[in-house]
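Have a close read of this protein, sequence plus structure tokens, and explain what the tokens say about the fold. Thanks in advance:
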Amino acid sequence: MLNLVLSRIYLTLLLLVAGIGLKAQNSQVKQAFGFPTKEIYDLRVDKHGFLWIASDMGVARYDGINYVHFSHPRQISLGCTNLLEDKYGRIWFNNFNGQIFYIDHENVTLVESYDYKSERNFPRMALFHDELLATSDKGIFVMNTNDLTARYIGNTYTSSLAVLKDKVLIRGDRVWYAYTEATGLKKIVYTGDEEIRSNVYWLTNNTYRDTAYLMVNPAGTVKKLLLQNDTVKQCGQTAFNSFINTVSVTPDNLWVNTNDGSYSLKDGEAIKGYNLSAIVNDLEGNKWLSSLYYGLLVQYKKDIANKTIIPGLDAGDLVISLKRYNDQLLLGTQKGFLALYDPATKNTSFKIKVSPAAGSINYIAAVDHDDYIVASSLSTYRVNIPAKKITELVNIKTAKQLCYDDKAIYIASTSGLFVIPREKSDKLNQQIQAMFGHVFQYNQADNFFYLRLRARAIAYSTGQDALFVTIKNILYKIDKNGMKPFLFENQQVYAASLSEVDQRLYIGTISNGMLVVDKNDIEHISVQNGLFSKSIFKIKPIDKNLWILGSGPLQIFNTQKRALVDNYEFPDRSASEVLDLDGMGGMVYMATSAGLDNFPLVKATAGKKLKNYLLYVKVNNQIWPDSGSHKLSYAENNVLFNIGIPAYLKARDIYIKYCLVTKTDTTWLTTEPGERTIHFSSLMPGTYTLKAVAVDPRMGVADRMISYKFTIEEPWWRGTAFKIALFLIFLLLVFYGYVTMLLKRLSLKKAFDTQQQLILAERQRISSEMHDDIGPGVFTIKLLADRAGKSENAGPEIDQIKNMVSDLSAKIREVIWSTHIGNDNLEILIYYTYAQINLLFEHSNIRLVDDLPDEIPDMKITVQSRRTIYLLVKEIVHNAIKHSGASTIELKMFTDEQSLHISVKDNGVGIKAGNSPSKGSGSGMGLGNIRSRVEKLNGELSIENKGGAHISIKIPLKTLQVVEFDKKLSKWQLLITKILKIPSE
């Protein structure tokens, strides 16, 4: 019970005891901005370099830019401590209510096997080989970090533990144990000062060179312990006379953190006034401190830049421009002073006020060895350094940039563009006018050329034989052909700075990176080439290198290699704006808003490489589980990648170069400096590979390329299975429609067959009645007429009656023949027609020549076509007998595979042209009837006069044929009727 009370006292003191303010003696310690709480209990830097923070708001990870907070839905308190990292990359911690958790792949897991509800205190934890050990009222809780199985060892109370090289030292209630995987929990002997009941004794879980440390509170003492065989020996102690929070072990130091200061046991260094709970070093060499009152603090690695103090400069004055002069620096200040500073002696040769009303000196440029142009915010001056002579150029208000050659000085200013000849010469003036297409006006009194347009930047390109100048930020080219806008990719160029080095023109644009103009081409240097800034404010040539000042970090462009250089160590720019710079003797001097800095131009430390990691992937704003499968549905097309880059000193200078590789696109892009997420929205189905790598302006690219391949699948309605299903449904619909049509046709067949049977029955009845009833009656009348005609009193009417009865009898026989269903055959039709035609010639002097065909197909024909053909042939022959005056008539009927052919020839007078049926009309009813009957049979009629009339008729057999309904069905239709067992009759 006493231990419980003392532990509660310790916790209360740990949380409440704090200093009042940040102390001046530790000015290097800075507040780490952005962390949301001022009460932090533990820190850890993991193997990747990320900083983990345990505070009263839970656990968070920091990468120099972003804080990511972690929690569990069943976490009953947020205050956490005991941050540990196992070899699998899991981060372990516990809260003050005794729950144990671990973080793995962005997920927080509660260790269910640790029974925190039955514990009196929160556990002290440590990692030993492949095991997590935690103190408990039940002994020691042991969890295998490989398979996450857990067990309790022993049945005695344990309070704290310390990991040694090959054993774990464990303290209980004034009892000591040693633990190994092989021996388990083993009781050992303690030799040291006798414990005092009023104090609380806690082992620190981390050790220094196999020395364990025992904190004693409220006595404020730290005891050093060594484990030798089965004995714990006290080998020393240090009294701090203050409550001890923790002991922090760093790779090169050992800190005891008390509520009034932190003290190094190695070198005596002290950090006072922060009430620290932990001290860790990150992989860059920065020191992170957690305070119970001030929150997260940092002591950055010493910056390479040093402040340059200019003797004689007013305390409130600021250097804002500089230019190298011999081995000295010519400095222009905010208050309008011009000073000459010698870095070797650190003395100022002179300091003069350019003009009482000069304003700040914003620009300095040399026009020859000793003469310089100095531009203030109001005027422009020419200064001779040895003579300290200052001459105001009254026509030029504020020079922005200048360049020169052996002929003239070219100045861009707020009052216009000026060309000042080196000497007064009519010949030189004519040359200048010809060089620039006579676009300048000439001031004879002061011997200069001018163009009254506000100019910002200027450069003379010897490679182009032209003057380049920006007017209202639009870049113009002035040469012998006059003045015209300079175009790149058919677009105007908006430029802020110009410079010419080795006959190449360098253009710093407002929003499109840098252009390099050579004699024959234009090269575009952009973020694709590693440029950090889209907007270039100033290009400063120093020793064949171009220093680029833009919206991003400082960069160097090597003009000889024509490439950006990214492996130099640059100072931190996070808190100041760079106004101007120049170099001399391997040192770079940089005028900033915080003062004049100097730093050596050296390459970054070899061996240190930037690290980058893919922390997690969000799909549709949900973290995608790392299950090994990277297949997304078509609706999961918003993908965000979070890249972790553990870098702290200049984290906001680092950017990410990335490419989303597809079959057709391999374009590389860059994020803004400091950005850590890459987001793609509304991606189309397909296979993608994200390639990303972090880039640091000083350290270059990261040591490994991040690669993540994923696939967005086609929507289900565009998948193969759906297409097959849709095709099958379409086939079923077609089949259903086809079967429905077939059923309708079969239904029609039944109706048709029924109708045909009725028609055939009626034809048979009519034929039978005419044959059986009408025929005998007419024959009887004929016999009576014959008998009456033989009597003596017979008149001429009797002969007429007899003839009429004979004609009627013949017609009745024709009707009986045509209606009799047994005669519906092509062969019978042809034979019957020949027989009836022969009867026509019984009383004629004309000879009939008929030619019966050898083969006649066995074909059932319709009654209509049978009667039509018979009447057609009869009428043609009758007309020939009656009108042709021929002695011979030839009749021929035959068939081929497709048609029935009828030919009637005579050797008579022929047929007059006006009676030709082919002309659409005829003077005789006979030819009209012939034509009408041929058309009904879909036939062809031909009449020729060649020694008589020759009538040819061609009738398709399919027109004559009786088609049975089953024959109208295809093989497939018949097969379907059989499969579906549909009756066809």
